[in-house]
Every structure is written in C-alpha cells, then in structure tokens.
Design a protein that fits this description.
Number of helices: 3
CATH superfamily: Phage tail protein-like
Number of strands: 5
Distance between the termini: 20 Å
Radius of gyration: 18 Å
Structural class: alpha+beta
CATH topology: STM4215-like
CATH class: Alpha Beta
Order of helices and strands: HEEEHHEE
Strand order of the largest sheet: 1-2-3-5-4
Shape: elongated
Strand content: 35-45%
Number of domains: 1
Helix content: 10-25%
C-alpha cells in the first residue's frame, strides 16, 4: 500500500458553504425589502410567508492550478410565498425578481466580505412547492459564487 504523507489529517468542518450562506443571508436581510425571515438551514416547520430558504444546490471545481483550487458554489435562494390567490402569488413572486438581481449584481456585494471573487445570479424561475404540508409559490434564484482556496502542497 502506498503512503501519502501529509502534515496533518484533513478534519471535517464547514469552512466553505456555511460562511458563504451567512453572507448571502446578511445581504438579503439588509437589502431585499419585505423578507420576513432568512433560513440559513431548513426549518422544521413550514417556512413563514415571505421567508427565504438558502441551501447548497451544488458545487464544481473550475481549476486547480498554481496552488489554488477555484470552486463555483451554487446556492439556491428560495423566496416562499404562502399559497392563497394563485394569480396574486405569481405577481408577488415576479415583484421580487429585480430586488434579488439588483442585490446580487451590485459591485459592493461581489466579494461577500472577502469570501468570494464574484457572485453571479445565473438563473431562476417561479414554481409551486409543498413544505411541511403547506403549499407555497416559490421564486427561485440561483447564485454562483466563485471562490478559491490554497491547495496543501506538502
């Protein structure tokens, strides 16, 4: 068996996703009017009307050169609107598209306080979801967060 020596074991810990989600949550709380609560982890009960759920949708490695790993982290922003009058709920979801695009396209938000190289709202849409037995109209905005970190070289 070949040994692969390292200085120390690589311990589990949330040094990548959690800090990114916390910064995205802070931007939403401060810059998107009308949001009732931002959930950084899924709630055990139905989310509040105009609550926002944040979750990792995926990640991919862009490159691993020059001692750095360049990673694109996709975070799903789900703005939940409690289902009542469907046409009014759809109109409410549409009304939130521009605030999210403006917040996450703003230059001052691009680095997430030093955690990222850039944040890009890539795609989204409106759908209907059931959460804890409650029906919601949901605006989904996917954010691609480009970040990098040093690769252990010894």
């Amino acid at each position: 068996m070949t040994e692969y020596p390292v200085d120390s074991p690589f311990l589990p810990g949330d040094a990548l996703v959690g800090p990114i989600i916390r910064q995205i949550a802070a931007i939403i709380r401060q810059q998107v009017a009308g949001v009732s609560i931002v959930y950084e982890t899924p709630p055990d009960a139905p989310p509040e009307h105009n609550g926002v759920l944040l979750a990792l949708s995926g990640f991919r490695i862009i490159s691993d050169t020059n001692g750095k790993l360049l990673v694109s982290v996709r975070v799903g922003v789900r703005h939940m609107i409690r289902r009542a009058s469907f046409d009014e709920n759809i109109a409410e979801a549409y009304a939130y598209i521009m605030p999210y695009l403006q917040a996450f396209s703003a230059w001052r938000n691009q680095t997430l306080n030093g955690l990222a190289r850039q944040v890009t709202p890539t795609h989204g849409g409106v759908t209907q979801l059931v959460a804890s037995g409650q029906t919601f109209v949901c605006l989904i905005v996917n954010l691609d967060v480009l970040t990098e970190f040093n690769i252990p070289t010894s």
